[in-house]
Amino acid sequence: MSMIETDIQRESVAVPALALRGLVIFPGMLLQFDVGRRKSILALEKAMEENQLIFLVAQKDLSENDPAAEQIFSMGVVAKIKQVIRRSDDGVRLFAEGLYRANVTSFESENPFLLVHLQRVETLPSRATRRSEALIRYTQNLFEQFIQNYTHIPPDIVIGVVQKKDCGELADYIASNIMFDFEEKQVILEELHPLRRLEKLAERMQ
C-alpha cells in the first residue's frame, strides 16, 4: 500500500472528488467517460498534479449541474487516473481504474472543486460455503438469461462472469457491466457483505 493510500485510511489527506451524473463506479472497473463541467476538470487537474488518485462518486439528483456536498452519495470509489485526453476547449475524456470503496468523512472545500477526506471501506470477510457457491451459479445463470436481451455484451465480459468465484467480486463485476439504474447500482456498491451484495444483485436481475 502506498503512502497516499495509508493517509486516506487515516483520513489525513484530502482527495479531489468528481461528481458523476447517472454513473456508479466499482472497484476493478476500467472506464472512460467525458468530463465537461469546469469544477470536475479542475478536480482532475489537481489529482494529476498530486498522485493521480481521484474520488469518483455519484450525485443524487441528475438534474443538478453543480452538486453541493449534501447532493452526492457518501460512498464512492477511489480511482487511479490512467489518462486524460483533451477533446475540446470545453471538455476532456478520462480513462481511469476503480481501486477501492471509500466513504466521505468530511469536506475540506467545495470550490473551486470538491475536496474530501475519505475513509477506505473494506469488504467484510467471507468464506466459500455451499450456499455461496449455489448463489454464484444461480447468478451466473441469471446473467446468461439477462444478456439475451442485449446484443452488445462483449464475449470477454461473459467469460469474466463465468470465471468469478467470489460473491463480492462477481456482484461488482456484473453490476459494472450491465445496464441498471444508477440508484440500484449504488445499493450494490454500498453493501459490504459479499453474500448479501450478490443476493441484492440477483434480486434486481430477476
Summary?
With 206 residues, the protein is an alpha+beta fold. Helix content is 38%, strand content 27%.
Could you explain how this protein is built, in words?
The chain has 206 residues and is an alpha+beta fold. The longest helix is centred in the C-terminal third of the chain and has 17 residues. The chain is built from 7 helices and 6 strands, in the order H-E-E-H-E-E-E-E-H-H-H-H-H. The protein has a 5-stranded mixed β-barrel. A hairpin with a 5-residue loop joins strand 4 and strand 5.
Beginning-to-end CA distance, first to last residue: 39 Å
Order of neighbouring strands in the sheet with most strands: 1-3-4-5-6
- Strand percentage lies at 25-35%
Sheet having the most strands: 5 strands, mixed, barrel
Counting H and I runs of at least 4 residues, what is the number of helices?
7
Query: What is the molecular shape?
Result: globular
Derived from helix and strand composition plus strand pairing, the structural class reads alpha+beta
Highlighted features:
single chain; about 210 residues; alpha+beta; five-stranded mixed barrel; 7 helices; 6 strands; about 40% helix
Secondary-structure map with pairings?
Elements lengths: L2 H7 L4 E7 L9 E6 L2 H13 L2 E6 L16 E12 L5 E18 L4 E7 L9 H17 L8 H9 L3 H11 L4 H9 L3 H12 L1
Parallel strand pairs: 1-3
Antiparallel strand pairs: 1-6, 2-5, 3-4, 4-5, 5-6
Helix pairs in contact: 3-7, 5-7, 6-7
